[in-house]
TrEMBL record:
<protein>
    <recommendedName>
        <fullName>DNA topoisomerase</fullName>
        <ecNumber>5.6.2.1</ecNumber>
    </recommendedName>
</protein>
<dbReference type="GO" id="GO:0003677">
    <property type="term" value="F:DNA binding"/>
</dbReference>
<comment type="similarity">
    <text>Belongs to the type IA topoisomerase family.</text>
</comment>
<dbReference type="InterPro" id="IPR023406">
    <property type="entry name" value="Topo_IA_AS"/>
</dbReference>
<dbReference type="GO" id="GO:0006310">
    <property type="term" value="P:DNA recombination"/>
</dbReference>
<dbReference type="GO" id="GO:0006281">
    <property type="term" value="P:DNA repair"/>
</dbReference>
<dbReference type="InterPro" id="IPR013824">
    <property type="entry name" value="Topo_IA_cen_sub1"/>
</dbReference>
<keyword id="KW-0413">Isomerase</keyword>
<dbReference type="InterPro" id="IPR003602">
    <property type="entry name" value="Topo_IA_DNA-bd_dom"/>
</dbReference>
<dbReference type="InterPro" id="IPR013825">
    <property type="entry name" value="Topo_IA_cen_sub2"/>
</dbReference>
<dbReference type="GO" id="GO:0006265">
    <property type="term" value="P:DNA topological change"/>
</dbReference>
<dbReference type="GO" id="GO:0043597">
    <property type="term" value="C:cytoplasmic replication fork"/>
</dbReference>
<dbReference type="InterPro" id="IPR013497">
    <property type="entry name" value="Topo_IA_cen"/>
</dbReference>
<keyword id="KW-0799">Topoisomerase</keyword>
<feature type="domain" description="Topo IA-type catalytic">
    <location>
        <begin position="37"/>
        <end position="467"/>
    </location>
</feature>
<dbReference type="InterPro" id="IPR003601">
    <property type="entry name" value="Topo_IA_2"/>
</dbReference>
<dbReference type="InterPro" id="IPR000380">
    <property type="entry name" value="Topo_IA"/>
</dbReference>
Length: 578
């Protein structure tokens, strides 16, 4: 409105990281001159315009080339390419078998040989060990190690943990933490910083003390060697908003009244806040090296010296982690030799790369092109914390990605349509390096180190080159064809799946099964691919536990027919002929 009205008058901005009353009062007491945020505004405007220009031109270009609606995006397409490349690597992977010989020693531990590719060599070693039945201790190495506490949460690391531990999608986590922010229970969620500023250190110190009392955590787990909040302070790494924190209002709130998803996400944030200011986790790692039949065998053990931040994690997240992480300490071996109680051959094989989950895909987006970017560039990934969840959701909604797996562990797989799109896409549109380079330049604009016009000129030149040089790939039309799932009951032509439903390929036919289907919604059901397949094949599908308007459940069969004009029509047949 300010721009459209052509207004030139100075104004101030209210800049908040929390919706708490005292934070809002503090914000109004220290309003910021608008000029302090001109560069941030320019960067956001450039990002918005670049995304729109690439999307509208590239989508139109490829839709015309291949005769069907295709969505192409500055961030979306490289992310899809990542998943396609990963699936290609999995498909091309050839597992290799290997063998190890395990020795159960009288000292109370099991020592293993190196991986041996040839089974005959491993079998000969097994025979030799069984013949000797004694292992000579070569050396025992003990080393004290530690793991520093994890940093505070930014949005991406919170989304990754919520996916890994709770099975929540990135969008679900964003929705939950946004709701917590609006309820004044957490600070601003769309942040890319894991740190706080010096101005916030005293606030965090007081907050952690109150959280300890609130949760009954003893101070001995906290780090007193240095001011415990000091490692969370880094002004240079806080751009717009500091890390995600619980608020003091949360301490007085009725947390049991929150939806379960919000409770779990809040619990992660509370735990991470306390873990970040706790002592390091310290342990003693022991490596026992023995020799038998001319081959080295090793056994490893760990002994906890100080739980530190892991004690906080265990206490606060016990119900979420739902596991016991036992560390095995090696028994003391006083003699130079150990007897062998048993020797056995173990077979294994190398593992292929893992399918992407939302956790690992978010990490890949965050670190994309890190190796190829100039040293010292801060923003190396593609997308921003605020947009990565929406990018994944859009790829799923457009039918380029699909989620598969159980409720807690879902993988993201490219569909045939997604693979086909990447097959015909020019390298520059797939490249994470180019998109990450744009993100780095947008950060330069945000800092006032680059003119917005320079960036937008680059974008326009890239689009112009793309439009004038790209031609349809030979033989690609077969790849780009929509999946046929059945025959149209109205005209007999193929029915294909598209973004919003299953359509008859005959343009003059009005038959369609909408995915967002009002009839099925009234039954408390979804019209998915399985239901559509049954309806087209058999003309009917049996549904269990349909819901009536009064909330009662019943079983029924949905019958499919066609109206006079070809549109789909549904009716119900109840069990028992009622």
């Amino acid at each position: 409105m300010y721009q459209q009205a052509g207004c030139k008058k100075p104004f101030t901005r209210l800049w908040l990281s929390s919706m708490e009353e005292n934070a809002i009062r503090e914000g109004f007491a220290h309003l910021k001159p608008s000029t302090e945020y001109d560069a941030l505004y320019n960067a956001a405007l450039c990002r918005e315009r670049a995304d729109w220009m690439v999307g509208i031109n590239a989508s139109r270009l490829f839709s015309c080339l291949y005769g069907q609606p295709l969505a192409v995006g500055r961030v979306m397409t490289p992310v899809l390419a990542m998943t396609v490349v990963r699936e290609a690597a999995i498909a091309a992977f050839v597992p290799e078998k290997f063998y190890t010989v395990d020795l159960e020693l009288t000292s109370g531990c099991t020592a293993s040989s190196r991986r041996i590719p040839e089974k005959s060599v491993a079998e000969n070693l097994l025979k030799a060990c069984r013949k000797e039945m004694v292992a000579t201790i070569q050396r025992i190495t003990r080393k004290e190690k530690s793991e520093n506490p994890p940093p505070l949460y930014d949005l991406t690391t919170l989304q990754r943990d919520a996916n890994r531990l709770l099975g929540y999608s990135a969008q679900q986590t964003l929705d939950y933490v946004q709701s917590l922010y609006e309820k004044k229970l957490t600070t601003y969620p769309r942040t890319d910083s894991c740190y706080i500023t010096d101005d916030d250190e005293e606030m965090l110190e007081e907050l952690t003390e109150e959280l300890e009392v609130f949760l009954g955590i003893t101070p001995e787990d906290m780090d007193e060697a240095v001011p415990r909040t000091r490692r969370t302070v880094n002004r240079e790494k806080v751009t717009d908003h500091h890390a995600i924190l619980p608020t003091r209002s949360m301490l007085q709130a009725d947390l049991e009244a929150l939806p379960k998803g919000e409770q779990n996400v809040l619990k992660l944030i509370i735990a991470r806040t306390l873990m970040a200011v706790s002592k390091p986790f310290r342990y003693l790692e022991t490596l026992l090296t023995t020799e038998c039949a001319g081959e080295e065998f090793t056994a490893k053990g760990k002994e906890v010296l100080e739980e530190g931040w892991k004690a906080v994690e265990r206490k606060v997240l016990a119900d979420i982690l739902n596991r016991k992480q036992e560390l095995t300490a090696l028994p003391n071996a006083a003699e130079n030799e150990c007897g062998i109680l048993n020797a056995e051959l173990k077979e294994g094989q190398t593992s292929p790369p893992k399918h992407f989950t939302e956790d690992t895909l978010l990490h890949a987006m965050e670190t994309a092109s890190a190796d190829s970017m100039p040293e010292g560039v801060e923003r190396q990934g593609i997308g921003t914390p605020a947009t990565r969840a929406a990018t994944i959701e859009k790829l799923v909604q457009k039918g380029f990605l699909e989620r598969k797996g159980n409720k807690k562990t879902k993988v993201l797989l490219p569909t045939d349509k997604g693979k086909a799109l990447i097959t015909v896409m020019p390298e520059e549109m797939q490249s994470a390096d180019m998109t990450a380079d744009w993100e780095a330049k947008l950060l330069q604009i945000e800092r006032g180190e680059m003119e917005p016009e320079t960036f937008m000129t680059e974008i326009k030149e890239m689009i112009s080159s793309l439009v004038t040089t790209t031609e349809a790939a030979k033989g690609a039309n077969a790849l780009m064809k929509n999946k046929i799932i059945g025959v149209c009951p109205n005209c007999g032509k193929p029915v294909v799946e598209r973004e919003k439903g299953w359509f008859c390929e005959n343009r003059e036919c009005r038959f369609v099964l909408w995915k967002d289907n009002a009839f099925f919604k009234r039954l408390g059901k979804r019209l998915d691919a399985h239901v559509a397949d049954k309806l087209l094949r058999d003309g009917r599908v049996r549904l269990k536990d349909c819901k009536s308007a009064k909330g009662k459940t019943y079983n029924a069969t949905v019958l499919l027919s066609c109206e006079a004009d070809g549109r789909s029509k549904f009716s119900l047949e109840f069990e028992g002929g009622c």
